[in-house]
Amino acid sequence: MLQERDSTIAANPAARSDWTREQIAALFDLPFTELVFRAAEVHRAHHRAGEIQLCTLLSIKTGGCPEDCGYCSQSVKADSGIEATKLMEVQAVLQSAAQAKDNGSKRFCMGAAWRNPKERDMPAVIAMVKGVREMGLETCMTLGMLTPGQAKQLADAGLDYYNHNIDTSPERYEEVITTRTFADRLNTLDNVRAAGINVCSGGIVGMGETRADRVGFVHALATMEQHPESVPVNALVPVKGTVLGNMLADTPLAKIDDIEFVRTVAVARITMPLSMVRLSAGRESMSEATQSLCFMAGANSIFTGDKLLTAANAGDDADSAMFARLGLKPMEGEEPLRAMKAVGGCSGGCAA
Ligand code: SAM
Ligand code: DTB
Ligand code: SF4
User: Fold this and answer.
1) Whose CA is nearest to atom 11 of ligand 1?
2) Which domains, from first to last, does the chain contain?
3) Ligand 3: which atom is nearest the Cα of residue 75?
4) What is the distance, to the nearest Å, from the Cα of residue 44 to the centroid of all Cα atoms in its chain?
5) What is the pTM for the complete model shown?
6) What is the pLDDT of residues 37-56, one digit of tens each?
């Protein structure tokens, strides 16, 4: 069955990279129900729409980050009360991964509050990848910027995915982060791709950006020569003491507009039909109705468990209840873009 699906996908020229901003803006402008309907059609053409991928996050090194990302509680510039920790011991990480596996998670994502990993950190990080993989879980890491050599080391250790977000549109980027550029981010993504690791890249909605910024954000991802295998769409978790948390507090922008959030998910689904679209941060304060609309609009992956990196998450009990109410099942199969590579259907661009 999977082979049949894979060859259908491999023959499918859907993952085009020539989207214009005007085309993406026109999708955002569609009547809401029409947009969600179209996204649901694209979703069904390429994915098993009743299945949601379950991933678990662990912060392996928390706080004290020298970067100034305006949304982040872990920046040294933020007055968020998050205490800086050292890199966790490998055994403790493996224990946590075993628990995630017991709870039904298929992927274990390890995040570190670093600008970039130091060479002295690499042996421990590599041991974590190898250990988690040996348990039969897929591995993902997000450690900040990587050199080509570090990407190769992680690939050799067997790392399945690397998460590095573009976060917002190229135009808005400098208003949110000044300590590294949009081009730096793309450079790391190139290094990850070149090393043969699957790419996970997305961003945040609800940072007070304009519709045009959301168009620019999706455009930057959808015009990549090869779309990211996973696209996390985070709703800003406004944290007191961060630049954005303080700026948006007590303004009408403090809470993301649900409909606009669902629109962004739908446009990501339509423009990157073969990618996994992950409903990431912000679910804890999102109604089940809004989450359902996101699943309808093509989101097919979530983070499970009580905690993201530092912020609260919806929690396993709430998610089990939601899955039962909605008739959703945890995903067992392979991601389309990854499956295409396995059957040799994508020789680089994956574009029409
Ligand atoms: N330090 C690494 C980096 O920045 O690449 C990895 C960890 S960082 C926390 C991963 C991503 O989480 C960020 O790029 C951002 O998109 C998302 N994120 C961080 N804080 C967030 C918040 N308060 N609300 C929503 N998303 C957030
Ligand atoms: C992503 O795009 N979202 C996750 C993951 N990649 C690493 C992180 C969300 C972090 C939310 C805020 C926190 O927990 O501090
Ligand atoms: Fe550091 Fe990552 Fe937070 Fe930016 S998002 S401050 S790089 S931990």
Assistant:
1) 165
2) 15-342 (3.20.20.70)
3) 6
4) 21
5) 0.93
6) 999 999 999 999 999 999 99
